Amino acid sequence: MINSLLRGCHILLLACMSAGVVAGEGSAAVKLTVSNIQSDVGKLYIAVYDSKDTFLGDTKVYEQVVGLDNLKDGQVDVELTLPFGAYAISVHHDSNANGKMDRNFIGIPKEPVGLSNGHVPKFGPPKFSKALIEISQPQQQELIALIN
Questions:
Q1: What is the per-residue pLDDT across 83-96, written as a single tens digit (0 to 9) for each?
Q2: CB-based contacts of 142: which residues, under 8 Å, 6+ apart?
Q3: Among 10, 58, 97, 120, which is disulfide-ready with 42 (CB 3.0 to 4.6 Å)?
Q4: DSSP character string of 43-107
Q5: DSSP state, 10?
Q6: Is the per-residue pLDDT at 17 higher than 60?
Q7: How far apart are CA 55 and CA 88, in angstroms?
Q8: At 128, which helix (H) or strand (E)?
Q9: CA-to-CA distance for 4 and 147, rounded, in angstroms?
Q10: Is the model's pTM score more than 0.70?
């Protein structure tokens, strides 16, 4: 009885591993460190995009809202799980806790924002190609520093 139960568990384990369920094959655990956070008021809005056409729009590959309870030395670590691929990540600190990104009269953010790959646009809106990063390792770390 016990041998047949163990054999069944081994078969189930092998089936899950071959399907990538246990091993997490093809995906990465990404430790995202968001730095230069000036206040513990509000929340961080994290969005991940996989194309130029959807970049900074409503269609996201992944999104997460993070409280600032674990803020330490102006930074917070967030765990993301993403399939291997090329992405651009944006982070917005809703520093007045009103649930939206405040902008000035020409559309420039009035709250701290940050992009992957250290992209800081000089003229015009951010570019997907400049914020693009490659997620290709099972364990990966990325840093985004917020700017005002």
A1: 999 999 999 999 99
A2: 30, 31, 32, 33, 89, 116, 133
A3: 97
A4: EEEEEEE-STTTTTSS--SEEEEEESTT-BTTBEEEEEEEESEEEEEEEEEETT-SSS--B-TTS
A5: H
A6: no
A7: 8
A8: helix 128-131
A9: 60
A10: yes
| CB distance 91 to 34 below 8 Å | yes
Q: How confident is the model at residue 24 (pLDDT cuts 50, 70, 90)?
A: low
The span from the first CA to the last CA of the chain, in angstroms, equals 65
Cβ proximity of 131 and 52 under 8 Å: no
Contact indicator for 10, 47 with CB cutoff of 8 Å:
no
B/e letters for 120-132, b = 16+ CB within 10 Å, e = fewer, are eeeeeebebeebb
| The pair of three-digit structure tokens given for residue 147, joined into one six-digit string | 């700017």
Measured CA to CA, the distance from residue 64 to residue 47 in angstroms comes to 7
Q: Quick one: what percent of the chain has pLDDT higher than 70?
A: 83
Residue 8 dihedral angles phi and psi, to the nearest 5°: -65, -40
Residue-wise pLDDT for 123-132, tens only, equals: 889 999 999 9
